[in-house]
Design a protein that fits this description.
By secondary structure, the protein is an all-alpha fold. The protein is built from 29 helices and no strands.
Length: 627
Amino acid sequence: MAKDMKTSIIFWLAVILSAVQLTVPVFFHLLDLQLRAIHVGLGISLAALVFPFSKKYQANKLTSMDILALIIIIAANINIYLKTLNIYMYPGSAGMLDLLLGIGLAIVILDTTRRAVGWAIPIIVIGLIFYAMFGDVFPGMWKLRGLSWDFVVNSIYYSPLGIYGSITAMSATFISLFIIFGSLLSAGGGGKTFIDIAFALTGRWRGGPAKAAIVASALFGSISGSAVANVAVTGNYTIPMMKKLGYPKDFAGAVEAIASTGGGITPPIMSIAAFMMAEFLSISYLKIIGYALIPCIIYYTSIYAGVHFMTLRLGLVPMPEEEIPKWRDVLTFQRLACLIIPMVVLLGLIAIGRPLLTAGFYTCLTTIVLMLITDIPKKGFKETFKNLLLALEDGGISLARIIPILVSVSILVNMVGITGIAPKISGLIMDVGGNNFIIALMIATVIPFLLGTSLPVVPTYVLSLSILAPPLLRLGADPVALHLFFIYWSLLGGVTPPTCTQAIVAAGISQGDWFKTGINAVKLGIVAFIMPFFFVWNPAFVGRGTPVDVAVCAVTGFLGAIFMGYGFFGHMNSKVNFIFRIAFFLGGVLLLFPNYLYSAVGLAIAIAMLIAQKAVTKKIKLEELSL
């Protein structure tokens, strides 16, 4: 076949996938399994083409391995589509052909996931399948009566569980819609507009580019769904500007890395996590946004404070006036229409009680209509239509990156259920943590942190939730706070050395050292490593308390983030500078602590240090004048 045929197939398959996800769930009244079969068939087919089997295969050449994978995917999903009623009426009744197709499809899905994000999820799934079939060889509490291979395959493939389970259901409906919405928003100039708004807002302040990076990354990251993509898009604008202004390259990369990471906890979209939280908890999406708001503000306060104190320390000046975008050029209908109007439609429809699927569809439709209205007069119909196709292609490719992961996670959740391993892990956490809530939480951070080093936020969050939530809920954790806890720890692995993907990408742009970039990113976002423990301990941090408690937590958390930032990045020309740093950081941590007494002690320490610092600074100036 022609060398570029695979590229053409990928393009049109991506466009078709986006078009199907925009229309079929809304307008075609299919049974759940039929919709999921279409979603899995198209999504896994595209992913198998986008991600080569191995590095030795040319990415743009169709191979026999690709053709074999496509045949298995199409045959297996047509089989499910046609036999949907039989599966509902007679679960576990798969024939030999069904079982063989199920085994083939599961292998292709796990291999596609390996190609997309590495071995982490496939190894866990394969391990659980092995455990389900050979659990009788394990000792003690881990011993399990081995399940037959046909029972396991029936559960994975020939049922509304496993491959076609609840996680795939979310992927086939609102998750896909909002990923496509992110691509449409970017195609409508959203990314560049976010950046220009950020520079217009902060450019006249000292350290404007770094502060612009924080604002732009928070805005763009909320809808992009990928911290790495966020770094790549906004970092190419902000990092060179930061370096030009005088920031060290390792610090410039760190600002972009940690600010982009926060997109996953920034309302309103929170990288799809907010919608999944609403679905899991059966709570209004608007309430989820409200619960996430205080931690998000404290997170970005920590970064902003670190940047501001570093700016003062370096003695940097604002951006040159001629490089700051003019508000009259930014605040135009053409620039803002595709940003503001779709978000108003989304929030408005959710506020009046419309389902996420309906709200997502009309949000995407609004964005498409606005793109046509604003672009056709300027670019013409042909160029505008081409841009729309490219946006749909980008949406389809974005789906191809996430669908194999979510379907594999759906298999994993099913295997956790049929093996009964979750209660055993719960018992282990209870045994080690005992009745000590904080120790149990510290144990529970390990899985999301490690998985988050190689996986996107959503699958890491879902995996952690399915395995770790039960014991923590039994210890009294607030459900909303616990969900946010797992989301935060799912994010942090991607910015923490040695596997700090966002920092590595940012260092590539800044030409800095990736390890130093990662360390600086951790220092800037240190509050994110501490705060999740506190808001599970005291849910007032996430708005789950009395108005007084919520207000106190918000204020003390805000002050604590500032003092912690000063502890790392403030500077004073004195021999006791290190002592001041430790004292300010300790005061910040105590202020963040969800306890009135500790917060009062933290505030007292911080005020005492401010007074002492002023006295020492005055003494140093007098000594300099006397020389």
